[in-house]
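Predict structure. Chain length: 81.
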Amino acid sequence: MLNWQQHMIMQQERYQDLLREAQKGRLIREARRAHAPRLPWHCQALAHLGKQMVAWGMVLQTRFDAPAQGEGQTQEAQNLA
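Prediction complete.
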């Protein structure tokens, strides 16, 4: 059975291991951020806007999709098609 001193030593070692892991994680994230190309804020905003417009367009297309061929069209419209 472990005495209290051995238990304290084990707890300190575990704490030091956790600190090392956290520091390693911070260094990895920092290195990734340093190497990742960063676009200016306006480019990121435009990219987000473009994605949002595509999503809105898809919703509108499904909601207001043109009727199937021949449905709801006059004879003149069918002749033009």
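Summary: The chain has three helices and no strands.
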